[in-house]
Amino acid sequence: MDQTVQQQLTDCILACNHCFDACLKEEHVGHMANCIRLDRDCADICSLLLQAIARNSSNVAVLAKACQEICEACAAECSKHDHDHCQACAKACTECAEACRQLI
């Protein structure tokens, strides 16, 4: 398996977890609810895909498709916010979605 894909997944997990935590500390946390939810979903699906790759699961392509879609949704949401953590997360999610396309 391509190390780059695994690194992109790991980077996305870290960015989403950082964004999730930082969003919880924002002054208007209610406005960040969708961002927070997508950060969690994205980190979770990336983690699941990473585990599936590690165990050579026959479901890698199916999980990669779901991961791609969730990463794209998270990137779209995070890109709406001016916070540095959201912009960094959007970038990591976009790169991860592209990496997931390689697995489909």
From TrEMBL:
Pfam families: Csp. This is Four-helix bundle copper-binding protein. PANTHER family: CYTOPLASMIC PROTEIN, CYTOPLASMIC PROTEIN-RELATED. Gene3D superfamilies: 1.20.1270.360. It comes from Exiguobacterium acetylicum (Brevibacterium acetylicum).
